[in-house]
Write a structure and sequence with these properties.
Blueprint (H helix, E strand, L loop, with lengths): L1 H16 L11 H15 L8 H21 L7 H25 L3 H11 L12 H16 L1 H8 L2 H6 L4 H23 L5 H13 L3 H25 L8 H29 L1
Helix pairs in contact: 1-6, 1-7, 1-9, 1-10, 1-11, 2-3, 2-4, 2-5, 2-9, 3-4, 3-9, 6-9, 10-11
Length: 274
């Protein structure tokens, strides 16, 4: 569920802001969700009962995305470059606040639990909590599939999408709230597992093309399979020690991110030469 959800969220974000480098971690959504969840763990907040962690993670994800969106908006317009830069900056600030919470907490058990959780892993997940990420995944994927045509329109650019009758600003706002909900729930369940939402959408587009009616379900399947194999590797590579699966996805995603940046730079240079 976590792998499928992260891949779907990454696919939608890349279409919404028309940036191939977009993913929940890069835009600060995952950092906001982590800060919300860690706050609940450190201070023992149980205002919403057993779903307090998920509620706090969702609130943090939504707050981070709104802050990034407001920071990147200038003159009523948002460019993908400003959005990515704002996301990186906000993510850095939220991560610093999270580290400050860890350093200042007086309870060592909570600090150790938070440290293990922030690396991203599936070892602490139980069947009792599976229903929540499952519901978030089904809801998010269902809504995005219904909006696949509008996501396709955004690939042609904002002006073209507006000409075709799409209210881009309102559509983006609704989708950002939905993606924050899904990301918050997934981060609350498994921690901030990075780069799944970056790698899988590009891999899937190479196989099935750019139509989101095919990309979204294929990305969900690919993300699920990838994270399952990453988790298996995390359990056997250093057995009996279990490596957090987020460490392995980062080891895969870091080189992929650099390759993607170089490919985007080459394409830009080729267009300039032409």
């Amino acid at each position: 569920m976590a792998g499928a959800g992260l891949a779907v969220v990454g696919t939608a974000l890349q279409a919404l802001i028309r940036n191939p480098l977009a993913e929940p971690y890069l835009l600060g959504v995952s950092s906001g969700a982590s800060l919300g969840a860690v706050t609940v763990i450190v201070f023992g907040v149980t205002l919403f009962g057993p779903v307090s962690l998920s509620v706090a993670a969702f609130a943090g994800a939504l707050g981070a995305l709104l802050l990034v969106y407001a920071t990147a908006r200038t003159g009523g317009r948002i460019t993908s470059t400003r959005l990515v830069l704002a996301g990186v900056a906000i993510a850095a600030v939220l991560t610093a606040v999270l580290d400050l919470l860890l350093l200042t907490t007086d309870r060592g058990n909570e600090a150790r639990a938070v440290l293990a959780w922030t690396l991203g892993g599936l070892g602490g997940v139980s069947w009792d909590t599976l229903w929540l990420p499952s519901a978030a995944l089904l809801l998010g994927t269902g809504v995005l599939m219904a909006q696949a045509r509008n996501l396709n329109l955004l690939l042609a650019g904002e002006e073209a999408a507006t000409t075709m009758g799409l209210d881009v600003a309102r559509f983006r706002a609704r989708m950002f709230v939905l993606l924050s909900l899904v990301t918050g729930v997934l981060v609350a369940a498994a921690g901030p597992i990075g780069f799944v939402g970056l790698m899988l959408p590009h891999t899937v587009r190479l196989l099935v093309g750019g139509d989101h009616r095919r990309v979204l379900p294929t990305a969900a399947l690919g993300g699920a399979v990838f994270l399952i194999w990453a988790d298996i590797a995390a359990r056997i590579v250093a057995a009996p020690l279990e490596i957090p699966v987020g460490v392995l996805t980062a080891l895969c995603g870091g080189p992929f991110f650099l390759w993607l940046m170089r490919r985007s730079a080459r394409r830009t240079d080729e267009r300039g030469t032409a």
